[in-house]
Write a structure and sequence with these properties.
Layout (H helix, E strand, L loop, with lengths): L24 H14 L4 E5 L7 H10 L7 H4 L2 H5 L1 H4 L5 E8 L17 E2 L8 H20 L3 E4 L7 H7 L4 E2 L5 E2 L7 E8 L18 H5 L17 H7 L6 H7 L2 E3 L3 H4 L19 H4 L3 H5 L3 H7 L9 H14 L7 H6 L6 H14 L2 H14 L3 H13 L15
Parallel strand pairs: 3-8
Antiparallel strand pairs: 1-2, 2-7, 4-7, 5-6
Helix pairs in contact: 1-6, 15-17, 17-19
Length: 412
């Protein structure tokens, strides 16, 4: 946001200073911390724009390996991520803030309820971008009024490497799962940043406390960590169910289980979560209808119902078709033949993405004889080649007695 004198009247109350007073850098930082706490932030630290260290080098290696998949926005102008001063040459201090969203239940427990969908904890409430950005802007206006210096606000939507900056600011450390870990809040922190033209005192960087623990590496269902501290997003369930716009690759479908939006496994298993606290912000708390939603009900969502259910939710941004694709993968993994009717109905869906996922779900729930009979009718009427390919592919790999060793004649 641009600089200005907005909010200066707020500085003249008992919490702050007398009108016209000038704060020292140390006093300004102390007052900033108090204001952040008043606005609901759980932790705050200040670091130097040059404190990103080797993170830029590792990010370049991540891009060169193609591990970002189809997230082309990550590869756009990488130098802006690798050095905050390229993003904004006027920055002198980076203020990192953490907002706790610790869940009130263990996310891993729902994975056993196969006819229910598992939604990542961060997405069960309102969209954190909207909730936290409002607070960041309020804090930024306060800082502008107190310092007279320009600021810019970022939360997970700009070319900012929040996690290494948060470590440099002392909020925690980047764990082996590549996410931030806090000794106070475990793996459950949203991060926001305020770039300031003020020169504020720096906090000490946190150090790595993962030790010999590899729990996050070992629990990953899709082996998305080629090595500690390295992620291949192309194998990550969060990427596959959120960022991936096409069919989910066959090799990962069984491993996805009932995870229909994101995955918390590597976060939830972290032993530092024993010190974690439940989040305090009501708007980020899990909505009752999103804690363990029925796959049957979710499969019946049309576009209007999808938008209504996920109003103010981050889930809305992937759209109904990609979401129902995810639901159908979970249905295929439910081991409940009664759900086959939902998948069969969606063979007539307007979206090829949905129809293709329905084919796979049916291949997991039907007998070989029933599947082949259905295919004999459906393939001839199918106009989309990607869906026809799905019929061919699933017929070959069907995990049922009488499984095909070659493509049936009617699928050729």
């Amino acid at each position: 946001m641009a600089g200005g004198r907005a909010g200066v009247a707020d500085l003249c109350g008992p919490r702050l200073l007398n009108k016209g007073a000038k704060l020292s850098a140390a006093d300004l930082k102390a007052a900033l911390k108090r204001e952040a706490e008043t606005l609901g932030f759980d932790c705050i630290g200040v670091t130097d724009p040059a404190a990103i260290g080797n993170a830029g080098k590792y990010f370049r290696e991540f891009l060169d390996a193609g591990a970002h998949g189809d997230m082309d926005w990550l590869a756009a102008q990488p130098e802006r991520r690798m050095d905050p001063r390229v993003l904004w040459p006027g920055v002198r201090s980076i203020i990192m803030l953490g907002f706790n969203y610790g869940p009130d239940e263990n996310p891993l427990a729902l994975l056993e309820q196969r006819t229910r969908g598992a939604i990542s904890a961060y997405a069960q409430g309102d969209d954190y971008h909207d909730v936290i950005k409002k607070r960041l802007k309020m804090l930024a206006r306060w800082l502008v009024a107190a310092s007279g210096d320009e600021v810019k606000v970022f939360i997970d939507t700009a070319a900012v490497m929040e996690k290494p900056l948060a470590q440099a600011a002392g909020l925690g450390w980047q764990g082996k799962h590549t996410n931030l870990v806090s000794r106070e809040f475990g793996s459950w922190l949203f991060l926001g940043a305020i770039f300031s033209a003020s020169d504020l005192p720096r906090d000490d960087a946190d150090s790595d406390h993962c030790g010999s623990c590899n729990a996050c590496q070992e629990i990953c269902p899709t082996a998305a960590f080629p090595a500690p501290y390295k992620l291949d997003a192309r194998r990550c369930i969060s990427y596959l169910t959120i960022e991936n716009k096409g069919p989910i690759p066959l090799e990962f479908r069984k491993s996805i289980g009932n995870r229909i939006y994101g995955c918390d496994d590597c976060l939830a298993v972290c032993p530092w979560n024993k010190f974690a606290q439940q989040g305090r912000e009501a708007k980020l708390s899990a909505r009752a209808e999103l804690r363990a939603p029925s796959l049957t009900e979710l499969a019946r969502l049309d576009d209007a119902a999808f938008r209504a259910l996920f109003s103010k939710s981050p889930i809305k941004r992937i759209g109904r078709d990609r979401f129902v694709r995810n639901v159908l993968i979970a249905i295929g993994n439910a081991d409940d033949a009664s759900l086959a009717a939902e998948a069969e109905r969606l063979l007539d869906d307007a979206s090829p993405l949905v129809r293709g996922a329905a084919v796979w779900a049916l291949s997991q729930l039907m007998t070989r004889e029933r599947f082949d009979a259905l295919a004999a009718k459906a393939v001839g009427a199918e106009t989309d080649e990607s869906v026809r390919d799905e019929w061919r592919q699933t017929s070959v790999v069907m995990p049922r007695e009488g499984r095909a060793s070659s493509i049936p004649r009617h699928l050729e």
